[in-house]
C-alpha cells in the first residue's frame, strides 16, 4: 500500500486544481507524489481519471489494503471489510475525489465539522462509516467494491465468506493456523513483532517459530520496571527461544506525542493507549534500524473473543424497559460518571441500553451523550445502520467490533505512524482471509465453554505451557488517572481542549468538561473509565484539528461545498 493516496474522476479543469492540492499536501507531509493518469485519458466521455500516491518509499500491498485503480470508465475501488486504512469520498473540483487521508479532505473542504460525525466520534472513539467528523465527506463502508465516475459512486458487496460453516474443533484449528501461517510466511526478513506476550501476539510468535522464521524481532513495551505483563512477555519469549527487546515507558515523552497527533495520524480516534503505542512505534524506528514490516495482534478479540460475553449484555437488554429507564435517570441524577464505582459501571450500560441498540451499546466508549456532548437531531437514529441482520447476534456484534473498534480505533494507533515512514504494517487477525475463517466457525468453537478465544489458546497451548496461555491478562494501557493528571496532558486539556477557539466545543457542555478536567487532576474522587475515555477522545480530536495543514491555494469555486 502507498502510505497515502488520492484519486480523482471529473473534468479536466478540475483535475488541475486537484493536482495542485495534492502537491501542496505532499509538501506538508514531506514526501514526493506520483500521479498516474492511466491510458486513454481523458476518454471520449471527457472525464479525467487519476490516482496520486504520496510516499517516501513504496510499501508492499497486503490483503487488507484499499485497492484503487484507473480504468476506461472511471475509478475502481475495493475496501476490505475491516481495515485501518479508510477510504473517504467527497465532491470537489467539479468531480469525485477519493483519499485515505482525512487531513487532505479537511484542507479541501475548509474543515467544517459535521455534528453527527462529531457525536459518533465522541461516543464510539471513531466515526463509523459512512460518517466522518467533516461536513461533506463520507467514509466508504468496508466489504464493498465501488465504481466511481465524475457524477457519483456505485457500490456492490465484495466480501462474502465461501467457507462451509463448521463446529468441528480440528477443522477450526486448521483453518486458523493455515491463514496465520500464510501471512507469516509472506513477511519480509527481520519483520518486527509488537509483543505483549498475550495470546494474540504470542500465537503469531509461536507460529513464526514453527515455520522456522526465527529472524522475527520481538519488541515489548513496559510501563515500568515492575510491569507484570512485561515480565510475562519475557517468559513467553524465552520459552519460544526468541530475543525480546524492551521499551520502558517515560511519562516525560507524553508532550512529544501530543505535539504530533496531526502529523502522525490521518484521522482522529479515541484510545488512550495511543500514547504508549506511538512511543513504541518511534522507538522501533530509532537508530536507523527501521524494520521493513511490523506485525501485531490487533483484531483477535473482535474475531474470536468479544461475543463470548454477549450473554451479559443481553441480560441487561432483557430487563423491563421501565426499570432500565429508571436506572438511566439515576445515572444522570447522581452524576455517576464522576465516580469510579461498581454501580456506575452497571448503570452506565443500563443508560446505553435505553439509547442505543445492543451492538452500538456494547461498543460505545461512554454514556455521556446528552451530558457532556449534544445528541444530534434524531438521536441514535442518526447512527449508521449495518447490514448484519441476517447474522447471528453474536456474529453481528463481532463484525461491528472488528470494523468499528479493532480496525477503527485500535489498529490506527500504529498504522499511520508506520506506513507514513515506509514500514509495512501487518494485522493478520484483520486480514479478509481470516475474517472469512472466523465467520465460518461456530461460537461454540471460537469460545468453547465460555472461554474467550479458546480456539487460539488451544493452538498456542500446543507450543507453550498452559500456565503461560490460560491466564488473566491486563490491557495495554498506561495508568489512566496518572496520565490524565500529568503536567503535559493537563496543560493540553486547558490550552487546547478548553480554549474558546476549539470548534468541537460547539457541541459540548463546557462546564461538565471543566469539572471532568478538574477531577482528572486529582481534585475529587477518581473518574469513571467512560469519562476518562471521553476526555482522551476529546483531547485527541481537538489537538488533531488544531494541527491540520493549512488549506491549499485553490480557487473557492473549485473546492468542495460544505
The geometry reads as: globular
- Give the termini separation: 30 Å
Number of helices: 24
The first-level CATH class name of the largest domain: Alpha Beta
Look up the CATH topology of the largest domain.
Rossmann fold
The Rg value, from CA coordinates, equals 23 Å
Report helical residue fraction.
40-55%
Report the structural category: alpha/beta
Structural topology:
Layout: E1 4-10, H1 12-29, E2 33-36, E3 48-54, E4 67-71, E5 74-79, E6 88-92, E7 95-99, H2 102-109, H3 115-124, E8 138-139, E9 144-148, E10 153-157, H4 169-185, E11 192-194, H5 199-210, E12 217-222, H6 228-240, E13 244-248, H7 254-259, H8 261-264, H9 274-284, E14 293-295, H10 300-304, H11 310-318, H12 321-333, H13 342-353, H14 358-363, H15 393-410, H16 412-419, E15 424-426, H17 432-440, H18 443-446, H19 454-460, H20 466-469, H21 480-485, H22 487-497, H23 510-520, H24 529-546
Helix pairs in contact: 4-17, 4-19, 5-6, 5-19, 9-16, 12-13, 22-24
Briefly characterize the structure.
The protein is built from 24 helices and 15 strands. With 562 residues, it is an alpha/beta fold. Strands 2-3-1-7-6-8 form a six-stranded antiparallel β-sheet, with helices on one face. Strands 13-12-11-14-15 form a five-stranded parallel β-sheet, sandwiched between helices. A four-stranded antiparallel β-sheet has the order 4-5-9-10, with no helix packed on it.
Write up this protein.
Helix 4 (169-185) packs antiparallel against helix 17 (432-440) and helix 9 (274-284) packs parallel to helix 16. This protein folds into four domains: 4-160, no CATH class; 169-298 and 411-469, Rossmann fold (3-Layer(aba) Sandwich); 306-394, no CATH class; 480-546, no CATH class. The chain is built from 24 helices and 15 strands. The strands form three sheets. A six-stranded antiparallel sheet has the order 2-3-1-7-6-8, with helices on one face. Helix content is 43%, strand content 13%. By secondary structure, the chain is an alpha/beta fold.
Amino acid at each position: 500500500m502507498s502510505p497515502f493516496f488520492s484519486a480523482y474522476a471529473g473534468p479536466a479543469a478540475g483535475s488541475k486544481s486537484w493536482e495542485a492540492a495534492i502537491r501542496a499536501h505532499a509538501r506538508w507531509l514531506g514526501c514526493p507524489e506520483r500521479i498516474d493518469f492511466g491510458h486513454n485519458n481523458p476518454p471520449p466521455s471527457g472525464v479525467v481519471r487519476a490516482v496520486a500516491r504520496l510516499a517516501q518509499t513504496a510499501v508492499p500491498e497486503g490483503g487488507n489494503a484499499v485497492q484503487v485503480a484507473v480504468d476506461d470508465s472511471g475509478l475502481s475501488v475495493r475496501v476490505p471489510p475491516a481495515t485501518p486504512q479508510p477510504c473517504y469520498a467527497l465532491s470537489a473540483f467539479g468531480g469525485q475525489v477519493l483519499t485515505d487521508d482525512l487531513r487532505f479532505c479537511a484542507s479541501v473542504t475548509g474543515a467544517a465539522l459535521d455534528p453527527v460525525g462529531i457525536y459518533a466520534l465522541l461516543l464510539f472513539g471513531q466515526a463509523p462509516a459512512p460518517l466522518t467528523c467533516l461536513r461533506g465527506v463520507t467514509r466508504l463502508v468496508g466489504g464493498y467494491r465501488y465504481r466511481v465516475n465524475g457524477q457519483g459512486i456505485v457500490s456492490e458487496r465484495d466480501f462474502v465468506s465461501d467457507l462451509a460453516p463448521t463446529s468441528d474443533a480440528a477443522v477450526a484449528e486448521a483453518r486458523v493456523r493455515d491463514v496465520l501461517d500464510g501471512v507469516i510466511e509472506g513477511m519480509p526478513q527481520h519483520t518486527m513483532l509488537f509483543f505483549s506476550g498475550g495470546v494474540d501476539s504470542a500465537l503469531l510468535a509461536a507460529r513464526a517459530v514453527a515455520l522456522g522464521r526465527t529472524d522475527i524481532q520481538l519488541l515489548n513495551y513496559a510501563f515500568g520496571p515492575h510491569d507484570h505483563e512485561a515480565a510475562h512477555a519475557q517468559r513467553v519469549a524465552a520459552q519460544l527461544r526468541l530475543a525480546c527487546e524492551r521499551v520502558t515507558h517515560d511519562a516525560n515523552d507524553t508532550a512529544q506525542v501530543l505535539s504530533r497527533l496531526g502529523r502522525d495520524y490521518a484521522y482522529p480516534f479515541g484510545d488512550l493507549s495511543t500514547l504508549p503505542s506511538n512511543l513504541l512505534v518511534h522507538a522501533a524506528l530509532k537508530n536507523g534500524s527501521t524494520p521493513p514490516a511490523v506485525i501485531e495482534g490487533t483484531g483477535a478479540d473482535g474475531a474470536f473473543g468479544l461475543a463470548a460475553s454477549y450473554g451479559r449484555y443481553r441480560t441487561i437488554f432483557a430487563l423491563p424497559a421501565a426499570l432500565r429507564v429508571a436506572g438511566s435517570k439515576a445515572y444522570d441524577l447522581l452524576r455517576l460518571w464522576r465516580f469510579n464505582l461498581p454501580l456506575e459501571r452497571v448503570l452506565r450500560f443500563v443508560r446505553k441500553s435505553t439509547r442505543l441498540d445492543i451492538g452500538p451499546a456494547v461498543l460505545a466508549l461512554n454514556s455521556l451523550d446528552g451530558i457532556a456532548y449534544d445528541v444530534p437531531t434524531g438521536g441514535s437514529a442518526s447512527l449508521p445502520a449495518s447490514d448484519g441482520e441476517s447474522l447471528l447476534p453474536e456474529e453481528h456484534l463481532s463484525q461491528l467490533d472488528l470494523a468499528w473498534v479493532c480496525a477503527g480505533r485500535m489498529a490506527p494507533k500504529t498504522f499511520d505512524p508506520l506506513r507514513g515512514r515506509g514500514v509495512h504494517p501487518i494485522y493478520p487477525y484483520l486480514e479478509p482471509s481470516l475474517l472469512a475463517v472466523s465467520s465460518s466457525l461456530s461460537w461454540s468453537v471460537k469460545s468453547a465453554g465460555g472461554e474467550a478465544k479458546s480456539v487460539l489458546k488451544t493452538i498456542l497451548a500446543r507450543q507453550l505451557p498452559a500456565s503461560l496461555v490460560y491466564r488473566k491478562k491486563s490491557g495495554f494501557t498506561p495508568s489512566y488517572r496518572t496520565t490524565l493528571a500529568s503536567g503535559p496532558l493537563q496543560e493540553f486539556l486547558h490550552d487546547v481542549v478548553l480554549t474558546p477557539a476549539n470548534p468541537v466545543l460547539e457541541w459540548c457542555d463546557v462546564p461538565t468538561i471543566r469539572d471532568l478536567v478538574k477531577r482528572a487532576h486529582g481534585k475529587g474522587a477518581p473518574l469513571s473509565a467512560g469519562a476518562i475515555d471521553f476526555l482522551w477522545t476529546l483531547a485527541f480530536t481537538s489537538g488533531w484539528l488544531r494541527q491540520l495543514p493549512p488549506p491549499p491555494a485553490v480557487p473557492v469555486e473549485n473546492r468542495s461545498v460544505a
